[in-house]
From TrEMBL:
<dbReference type="GO" id="GO:0009277">
    <property type="term" value="C:fungal-type cell wall"/>
</dbReference>
<keyword id="KW-0732">Signal</keyword>
<dbReference type="InterPro" id="IPR050546">
    <property type="entry name" value="Glycosyl_Hydrlase_16"/>
</dbReference>
<dbReference type="GO" id="GO:0005975">
    <property type="term" value="P:carbohydrate metabolic process"/>
</dbReference>
<feature type="region of interest" description="Disordered">
    <location>
        <begin position="345"/>
        <end position="439"/>
    </location>
</feature>
<dbReference type="InterPro" id="IPR013320">
    <property type="entry name" value="ConA-like_dom_sf"/>
</dbReference>
<dbReference type="Pfam" id="PF00722">
    <property type="entry name" value="Glyco_hydro_16"/>
</dbReference>
<feature type="compositionally biased region" description="Low complexity">
    <location>
        <begin position="421"/>
        <end position="436"/>
    </location>
</feature>
<feature type="compositionally biased region" description="Low complexity">
    <location>
        <begin position="353"/>
        <end position="370"/>
    </location>
</feature>
<feature type="signal peptide">
    <location>
        <begin position="1"/>
        <end position="20"/>
    </location>
</feature>
<protein>
    <recommendedName>
        <fullName>GH16 domain-containing protein</fullName>
    </recommendedName>
</protein>
<comment type="function">
    <text>Dual chitinase/transglycosylase that plays a role in cell wall architecture. Chitinase and transglycosylase activities are coupled. Required for the polysaccharide cross-linking at the septa and the cell wall. More specifically, transfers chitin to 1,6-beta-glucan in the cell wall.</text>
</comment>
<dbReference type="GO" id="GO:0004553">
    <property type="term" value="F:hydrolase activity, hydrolyzing O-glycosyl compounds"/>
</dbReference>
<keyword id="KW-0326">Glycosidase</keyword>
<feature type="domain" description="GH16">
    <location>
        <begin position="79"/>
        <end position="288"/>
    </location>
</feature>
<dbReference type="GO" id="GO:0031505">
    <property type="term" value="P:fungal-type cell wall organization"/>
</dbReference>
<feature type="compositionally biased region" description="Low complexity">
    <location>
        <begin position="385"/>
        <end position="398"/>
    </location>
</feature>
Length: 460
């Protein structure tokens, strides 16, 4: 009767469904007993192999080529992020792992609102917006101050997600504004009893602060400073696997607005979210659904008592594919790739290195190689965000990042059977005029985005 869906599993399902239906190049897949090969060593959170951004946040060490393929994860930093500009946000087709250049990575179209907050937007033919912290958290207090979106099929989320799919959630379905859904997962294993509704006053009209207090032994969800639910690790023992099914690995903070109510999604996901999205809804403004995020605070806890894998203080990595708490290490590892063709195994690879600067933050992929470089983005040339919401006045990361719509519409349809010649992230960088060439706003850069792209094509 009751079903809950982790953001991750809903997205993954969404993504693979879409892949099955769309005309897409065959991207190598990865999963249990099926790790990525050496040429595309990094297994993305969507279960596909690639290089570049595939090896950054979300790269799953369990199914990647080896334990060095995924780049080590920038360590937790205490912070009070006032989300009032996009200066601290880099698109996922720009970010190469240097967390000192941006605290947030985005896919989709975040929009500055009133100079004091950021809107996560979701326009027709898009799959919404996702903000991901570049620094990971391995236990801590994490809060987000926000208002949600509303309407059938529209989901707002504030979650912690690890690279091995541990997850701690606040999720808001747009047909129930009086509840926040709290949930948690261990390594993506679905357990329908983990979800619990927390009562809250109207999440659209009232700004609330949602906080996750994540300790090695207990997990508490707070709303406006009031503890609403606690889960102890010792209550999560799974006798089948002889493990605590408790979130225990370094995680990124993620804020998102996404359309669970798309026909392409599983019926369970659609039902959970209250039905199909109405793209002519009165809840939309300026042509999009929106959730408003004002502030995110992170207070890092020390590594747990008895932690023996302390080799430095810059980054997290794993020393085994088990992905459990005792396999987490801290080190002084490099976290930066030289280009979108680099990997954790070969972080300095840069097609332009001989003739050009090596500045990681500025480089982007060249046109000559074939592997996928930004997860959730398929086909040739559609590397990331194409959505430039010119009406929003927040062009900070649209024009600047190069709209890639021509690449998107041109190459995905023509397909390239496993990526022949035309993957061209660098190429399309120049085409900043592209956003005007495409009817409707398209967003790419995540599984969500990919769905949006396909939907966009159908609409067109
Ligand atoms: C991190 O650094 C340690 C120590 O040098 C090394 O053993 C490990 O392979 C590195 N891991 C990653 C993912 O960089
Ligand atoms: C939480 O509320 C939603 C409706 O908003 C409902 O579908 C779901 O079953 C509830 N979950 C639990 C565990 O009661
Ligand atoms: C479970 O863990 C909690 C929090 O650490 C602790 O207070 C409680 O005593 C533990 N219960 C059992 C049965 O060990
Ligand atoms: C225990 O873990 C197994 C394997 O992951 C899973 O199928 C099962 O649902 C879990 N049992 C409980 C009670 O959570
Ligand atoms: C990992 O979790 C186990 C319980 O599953 C605990 O006994 C151990 O202390 C933890 N180790 C670390 C390093 O957190
Ligand atoms: C390589 O340099 C060319 C010419 O400057 C540029 O168009 C392309 O985007 C660059 N590629 C990378 C990977 O930086």
């Amino acid at each position: 009767m009751k079903h809950t869906y982790s953001l991750a599993s809903a997205l993954a399902a969404t993504f693979s469904l879409t892949l099955a239906q769309g005309s897409t190049p065959s991207i190598p897949t990865c999963g249990p007993n099926q790790p990525c090969g050496s040429s595309t060593p990094c297994c993305s959170q969507y279960g596909q192999c690639g290089v570049g951004a595939y090896c950054l946040g979300g790269c799953d060490p369990r199914y990647s080529f080896d334990l060095d393929s995924c780049v080590a994860a920038p360590m937790c930093q205490n912070a009070d992020y006032k989300l009032n500009s996009l200066d601290d946000v880099q698109q996922n087709n720009i970010y190469l792992g240097d967390a000192s250049t941006a605290n947030w990575v985005s896919s989709g179209t975040p929009v500055v609102y009133n100079g004091d907050s950021i809107l996560l937007t979701m326009a027709p033919s898009t799959v919404g917006t996702l903000l991901m912290s570049t620094h990971y958290v391995w236990y801590g207090q994490i809060s987000a101050t926000l208002t949600t979106s509303q309407g059938a099929g529209v989901v707002t989320a504030f979650i912690l997600m690890s690279d091995v799919h541990d997850e701690i959630d606040f999720e808001f379905v747009g047909v129930d504004l009086e509840h926040a859904q709290s949930n948690y997962y261990f390594q993506g294993i679905t357990d329908y009893d983990n979800e619990q509704n927390l009562t809250v006053s109207n999440t659209v009209s009232n700004t609330h602060t949602y906080m996750i207090d994540w300790q090695p032994d207990s997990l508490t969800w707070y709303i406006d400073g009031v503890a609403m639910r606690t889960k102890n690790r010792n209550e999560t023992w799974n006798a089948t696997t002889s493990q605590y099914h408790y979130p225990q690995s370094p995680s990124r903070v993620q804020l998102s607005l996404w359309p669970a109510g798309l026909e392409k999604n599983g019926q369970g996901t659609i039902d959970w979210s209250g039905g199909l999205v109405d793209w002519n809804s009165a809840y939309m403004q300026n042509g999009y659904y929106y959730a408003n995020v004002q502030e995110v605070k992170v207070e890092c806890y020390n590594p747990p008592q008895g932690f023996a894998n302390n080799h430095g203080n810059k980054a997290y990595y794993y020393d085994s594919t088990f992905g459990t708490n005792d396999t987490v290490c801290t080190g002084n590892n490099n976290t930066v790739l030289a280009s979108f063709f680099a990997t954790g195994d070969d972080p300095k690879t840069d097609p332009n290195a001989s003739s050009n600067t090596k500045t990681a933050g500025a480089s982007s992929a060249s046109a000559s190689a074939t592997p996928q470089t930004v997860p959730g983005v398929s086909g040739g040339g559609n590397a990331g965000n194409a959505g430039s919401d010119t009406s929003s006045g927040s062009a900070g990361n649209s024009g600047a990042n190069g709209g890639n719509n021509p690449g998107v519409s041109g190459s995905s349809g023509t397909s390239q059977g496993g990526g022949s010649t035309q993957f061209s992230q660098g190429d399309s960088q120049g085409s900043t005029s592209s956003s005007t060439a495409a009817p409707g706003k398209k967003v790419a850069g995540s599984a969500l985005a990919f769905v949006g792209f396909v939907v966009g094509c159908l609409v067109i």
